[in-house]
Write a structure and sequence with these properties.
The chain has 241 residues and is of the alpha/beta class. The protein has a single domain, classed as NAD(P)-binding Rossmann-like Domain (Rossmann fold), CATH 3.40.50. Helices cover 48% and strands 16% of the residues. Helix 4 runs parallel beside helix 7. The N and C termini lie far apart (38 Å). Bound molecules: NADP nicotinamide-adenine-dinucleotide phosphate. NADP nicotinamide-adenine-dinucleotide phosphate binds next to helix 1, strand 2 and helix 8.
Length: 241
């Protein structure tokens, strides 16, 4: 069996592409998801990848979920913090619930998932953490104050934790995708997408989930052992950070 990798939100969108790409590289993958059982079961049937349901915004659920993955598959050596949600609304209409849901999933989820695997990685002197942030955490985006704050927080989390992991063989990196063709982006109004977003992307198209997955595979590999605390920008030239 290959190294064990957990991909949060690993059954749909970018996460599904990451799960499949890691499996193709020989990893034993556990794909986590939140509640869409139908999509998770279809993904499992298509790929043979084990799926595990828990909510990354709950610390207790993450601890229990990781325990069950480790009991079934072995110690976690690669963690891809990919699960994320949007609750887009202009700030003057944003509710505490919309703020809290996005922060708890997209930022606190990184603490909840990483803390329970960290001590084992330190003890084994090997680990790979890849956090999926966003272009909108780098540049900010109107209508996404909650999301931009959480995703910028993911980058700070990455840089600080990388310093702690460096001497014990653990790398921690972030990827900031631009607009990638998944359900999250298809939820954007088509007129807004075609008239206001696509013209801003120099390569003239949305990114593909596989284009992010390939970056994750590289950052998880032994070959990337000297890369830590970095932010990999993958956005078709839309924004240079
Ligand atoms: N798509 C883009 O253009 C884009 C750009 C920049 C950054 N990103 C980031 O990339 C990541 C993936 O985005 P995506 O577009 O692939 O999203 P997506 O298609 O909406 O899929 C989201 C996945 O995350 C899971 N998830 C959501 N909340 C969760 C929770 N609390 N606990 C566990 N799993 C949870 C979902 O599970 P269920 O299937 O059970 O709902 C699903 O598997 C996110 O962090 C997103 O912010 C995306």
């Amino acid at each position: 069996m290959g190294k064990v990798a957990i991909v949060t939100g690993g059954t749909r969108g970018i996460g599904a592409a990451v799960s499949k790409a890691l499996k193709a590289e020989g990893y034993t993958v556990a794909a986590n998801y939140a509640g869409n059982d139908e999509a998770a079961e279809a993904f499992k049937a298509e790929t043979g990848i084990a799926v595990f349901k828990w909510d990354v915004s709950s610390y207790e659920s993450c601890e229990a979920g990781i325990r069950s993955v480790e009991a079934e598959l072995g110690p976690v050596e690669v963690l891809v913090n990919n699960a994320g949600i949007t609750r887009d609304v202009m700030f003057h209409k944003m509710t505490p619930e919309q703020w809290g849901a996005v922060i708890n999933t997209n930022l606190t989820g990184l603490f909840n998932m990483t803390r329970p695997v960290w001590e084992g990685m330190r003890a084994r002197k090997f680990g790979r953490i890849v956090n999926i942030s966003s272009i909108n955490g780098q540049k900010g985006q109107a209508g996404q104050v909650n999301y931009s704050a959480a995703k910028a927080g993911d980058v700070g989390f990455t840089k600080a934790l990388a310093q702690e992991g460096a001497r014990v063989g653990i790398t921690v990196n972030a990827i900031c995708p631009g607009y990638i063709a998944t359900e999250m982006v298809r939820a954007i109004d088509e007129k807004v997408l075609n008239e206001r977003i696509l013209p801003l992307i120099p390569v003239g198209r949305l990114g593909e989930p596989d284009e992010i997955a390939r970056c994750v595979v590289f950052l998880a590999s032994d070959a990337a052992g000297y890369i830590t605390g970095s932010t990999l920008t993958v956005n078709g030239g839309q924004y240079f950070h």
